[in-house]
Amino acid sequence: MRWNALLTSAPLKTALLRTALAGLLVLPLSLVASSPASAASPISLTSGFYSNPDSGPAAWVRNNPSDSRAARIQSSIASQAIARWYTGGESGGIGPAVANYVGAADSRDKLPVLVAYNIPLRDACGGHSSGGAGSVAEYRTWISTFAAAVGTRPAVVVIEPDALSDFSCLSSAQVSDRLAMLAYASQMFQQKAPNTWAYLDAGHTNWVAPATMASRLNSAGVGNIRGFAVNVSNFYSTGSSETYGNSINSSLGGGSHFAVDTSRNGNGSNGEWCNPAGRKLGATPRVGGGEDLLLWVKTPGNSDGACGIAPTVPAGQFSPAIAVRLIDGT
User: Fold this and answer.
1) Least crowded by CB within 10 Å, which of 24, 61, 217, 223?
2) Domain 36-328 carries which CATH code?
3) Shortest CA distance to 68 belongs to which of 321, 322, 264?
């Protein structure tokens, strides 16, 4: 994929930055102090999606060059732009971890996709990916640091998969806390990462009714950011996901935008969510269509948990066996 090279060339970006800085020198001090950084589309600032050379599939291929599956996994999965997930406990802290990753992408003029996945009581009902920050205060510090580490560099961020759908195991007080934390997260990306398209996760087509999800998104501050994401880590077809996303957007009044996770939806869903058989890789990441973006948010080949076709593989661990089945659709 190649986006507008003229707009994204390094010399032009430098010239534009110098012009902007020069313009600030003639503004009244009060305006400089009170005005937020102006937002730009991360698409216009980059020349394609960033492919992480250290993703789980890429690392496996690098460490297993003689494995008969390595070439296929490299070609079909590891070479693609896959989101980088941050789940708490990052070595050196969340700030340096995010800053280094976004910086690596920016140095190559590419657009990174990141996932913030550390809300307290994470995956409360599913259980396979349980965990998250230990308190509301801890989460607020973590997500604020995350957004600040992205800063003005272009990025796409998906905020807290399942957080607005996974309510059935929470008390009313826990739901209120969760909505407040997500609203705070949306504010942090609005204020500290102006060139980021941030999306609150909105579940999938067969989980929460569109009008209900729209209400939750409003409470979680979707108006502060680019919009919402659907089908993250699930298998529903792109068409089904677009219908769901458009229904949510209609309930929101039509002013939002959405992205679709297509990483494993090539054969659609069979109603199962935890390492189901017969699923297949979906369309590779791209811009445009019936939504903002098609993304690979879930890493193809990473287990959903010790279940389904991978009963001994923990959640988040890469399995070449799962990967090959997704390539073949078996």
Assistant:
1) 24
2) 3.20.20.40
3) 321
